[in-house]
Design goal:
Length: 243
């Protein structure tokens, strides 16, 4: 029985450690994929995710600390950063945390993905407006099926994002990584709202216009979208004949 309990405890510690380093694991995985597949959308996203978000959160926290707002102080032993820290803290040591870097990075990712999914969902109006129903060379049914699949991907992304946000809030609250009291509520909600909006607008910044998000689409769907006129008259591809 003791062995089983120890095994369960080890799994719990393993999962907790994975959740604590989730922002870095997510960023590192996307960095490797982006570099080896030349996925510029991922690389541009990571510029805001891995560089700007931690710098902004850390800079704001430092400014609050310099200003002397002690209401934002949290016990250093309770602060769960984006990487493991085994440093021994004094019993009464405190750290100023106005915005959480961990929640900030996760919220930035969620805000970016939600805006990305919304943009892909809305692209139906752009494509269907170009369809000429009288033109029998265009397979309207096939195009409608692809539109339905794309919209389903977008809706599923929204649902997953909702569960991720709720899970992140629960974990940070359960592990007391955002402190206690009313300050915890403002810290969690502030981080989600500020950096969720930052991710939303970062996607808008990387999108050149309403119809071109090929360098900002993390789903890789935008690069495969073609207007119906591109397949009009069933074009063929010519290849060299070596017979």
């Amino acid at each position: 029985m003791d062995t089983l309990i120890n095994f369960v405890e080890d799994i719990k510690v393993f999962i907790y450690g994975g959740v604590q380093s989730l922002p870095l694991v997510l960023g590192g995985t996307m960095l490797v994929l982006g570099l080896f597949t030349a996925n510029y959308a991922m690389l541009f996203f990571l510029l805001g995710y891995l560089v700007l978000t931690p710098l902004i959160a850390g800079g704001i926290n430092k400014c609050i600390e310099i200003a002397g707002f002690t209401a934002c102080n949290v016990k250093s032993s309770d602060v769960c950063g984006i990487y493991s820290n085994n440093t021994f803290y004094a019993k009464d040591a405190t750290e100023t945390v106005f915005l959480s870097q961990w929640l900030g990075m996760i919220s930035f990712f969620i805000g970016y993905v939600i805006n990305n999914a919304v943009d892909l969902y809305k692209k139906e109006s752009i494509i269907t407006n170009e369809i000429n129903i009288a033109d029998t060379s265009i397979d309207v049914g096939a195009i409608d099926k692809k539109i339905t699949n794309r919209k389903a991907h977008a809706v599923m992304s929204w649902v997953i994002c909702l569960f991720v946000v709720l899970g992140a809030i629960y974990v940070r609250d359960y592990t007391r990584c955002e402190g206690d009291g009313i300050g915890k509520v403002f810290r969690i909600m502030g981080s989600i709202i500020v950096f969720g909006a930052a991710g939303y607008f970062w996607y808008n910044y990387l999108t050149s216009d309403a119809n071109s998000n090929r360098l900002s689409d993390l789903f890789g769907i935008a690069n495969r979208l073609l207007p119906p006129v591109a397949i009009k008259n069933k074009p063929t591809v010519c290849i060299p004949y070596s017979g």
